[in-house]
Amino acid sequence: MLGKFFKTHNVKTAQHWQQVYEFADNNVYKKVKLFRGLCLPSTCKPQDLSRVLTKLVYPITHFPIIFHEDCDYKDKPIVLNNYHIVSIVGVGLLIAIFILSTIIDCLPDSLFKKMLLSIPNISFIIKCFSGKSNAQSIFGLQQYGKFKALDGFRAILTFYCVVLHTYEFGQLFMFNRNHYLSSSFKMALDYRNMFLPNILLMDNFVLLSGFLLCNTILSKLERSNGRFNYFQYILFRYIRLMPIIVFALFINFLFEFTGSGPIWKLMLSYFTNQCYDKWHKPLLMTTNILHYSNDNSTILTSVQCLAITWYSSLDFQLYALAPIAFLVLYKYPRFGLIWLFILLIFGILLPIFNYQILELPHVYQAISWPDVMQTMEGFARHYWQPFNYIQTYIIGMITAYAVRYHPKAYLGGRIGHMFIWIITICMTTSILYWQRNFVTPGYLAYDFNDYEMPLYLLIGKPIYLASFVWLIYCCSTGRGGL
């Protein structure tokens, strides 16, 4: 073989990865026009191609590349199974309910409309499915109540989440060499990793959920003299979440008809086919509770049906456990606050238990941990499951307690408020600065010292959430301005 050879890199640390990215960007992608290709004999079978690609990428990705023998071709007949038929009927039924609810909601006031809305179940369905009511709720600018500013905060977080999943956590950046190579080895140096990606972003949503739930339930308990029906509490939440989850499940079964290609079957095996055996998990709100039974389950979604619903399951599970906290807080306010802090300490110690006792690596160590199965279990425990978010939920409830029972607490006036703003923003920024290198490509497990990760699990989330807790308290008590 003739030609010029490039030097090789022995990748061990984050700095070595940065050198590889810079080398590839300067010497490969800027000089080679066709930078993705694989030459194989024309007699190769799909199994041969699968073996070659798996040999190349498995050390990096830890999951096999498999090409299906059932190739796509023009005019290939569409075969529907029972899942497809039920999904088509279900999607049609949900769309019909949506259209009918929207039409009824848009009708002028009349005796017929008042009669329909007087029936509780029909009124509830129309409110849930009407495009008019939902559009007004989402896009309406005239909102009332002391928590109206939090809708804007949630909208910003949602946009931030979409950006992160599209350009950082998703696969798009891997196919954009200008983004992936030109910036990846520099992102730790220009502090972009302080904000993109931010693995703690979901804690902001959990914080808001705990705060709003606790405040709402305490108000209802005060109006009803402490009467609480747990079955009704759970059922209404389940009914509220289920239509969109069922619709997503139906679409998931029909997803295979939206594409084709040599690796389309492979993609379906990672993201769609699991629902044939695990379709009940989204319906039971257990999508985020995973179990890896063999060494082939080396990608998170390969054992997960409808992975996008993991947060809905998480929120529902925390919602179901929340009465343990707010009922005590309502009946015994002073002891209830102490009880919240006990639960907070318990929630902080759980991730440390998973890391130290069960020896499950944290999300930041997942890429470089030598045991693949342990890595997957660690990712599931430290990110997907509700135990990792108990402390955040409880912090939201403590914030609700402060807003509800101490809204006019004197904190030094405007000067005191300004100092609290500065201190809490610095606290949040310090955690972002601390973890900026954790997500740098090549930051290996042994780059953490013996105390860094336990200390991060102990104080990371409470300190990170400090500025957001103060933001919620300010916006809810009229202290937002200086």
Secondary structure layout plus pairing:
Layout: H1 14-29, H2 46-61, H3 82-106, H4 111-117, H5 120-129, H6 131-139, H7 149-167, H8 177-184, H9 201-223, H10 230-254, H11 264-271, H12 275-278, H13 280-283, H14 310-321, H15 323-331, H16 333-356, H17 372-384, H18 390-405, H19 413-434, H20 452-464, H21 466-477
Helix pairs in contact: 1-8, 3-5, 3-10, 7-9, 9-18, 10-14, 15-16, 16-18, 16-20, 18-21, 19-20, 19-21
Short summary:
This protein is mostly helical.
Strand content bin: under 5%
Secondary structure class reads mainly alpha
Unreliable parts: 1-6, 170-185
Radius of gyration: 26 Å
Structure description:
The chain has 482 residues and is mostly helical. It has a domain at 150-227 and 322-477. The protein is built from 21 helices and no strands. The chain is globular, with a radius of gyration of 26 Å.
